[in-house]
């Protein structure tokens, strides 16, 4: 069992592990290349994203600057768009569906720590995976906390802090985010919610 297998099964992240430290260095080097690349050089950016994430559909767009820790634990569906300054802490897996829009400054966290302050002194991290379903729209500055699942076709309002699962076809706003409306899959979405 690899060190990553242990982490993704719920064990602690060993930052001193050769495998994990190597993946962090690799991820940060690829991230630096991506962020330094010209916006118009889509072929190069696509190639870097495919290396960073292990795969990246050609129909996706990752605006820069973009920040992540490893890259290897991020899985992205077709025609998904990351706007500027998206940050993903991918100690655990992040599954982002197809046709998802992430507005500027969206933050997605899978890393969590022990509640005991003495246990935190060694910086041990654990993971709680995040899942964002197809056709979601995540508003600017929203924070998706560890362990959250957002159901398909949902809208998360700008500045929301999502601490719990959000059902499909929901509009959630606030801190902590709460569902204020349920939409039928065919109902038009109100753009004013994310302005």
TrEMBL record:
Enzyme group, top EC level? transferase
Q: What is its EC number?
A: 2.3.1.-
Keyword Acyltransferase among UniProt keywords:
yes
Entry superkingdom: Bacteria
CDD domains from the xrefs?
A: LbH_MAT_GAT
Classification via SUPFAM superfamilies = Trimeric LpxA-like enzymes
Q: Name one GO molecular function term.
A: acyltransferase activity
Maltose/galactoside acetyltransferase domain ranges (all copies)? 4-58
Keyword field = Acyltransferase, Repeat, Transferase
| Similarity field | Belongs to the transferase hexapeptide repeat family.
From the Swiss-Prot or TrEMBL record, give the protein name: Acetyltransferase
Organism, scientific name: Aeromonas bivalvium
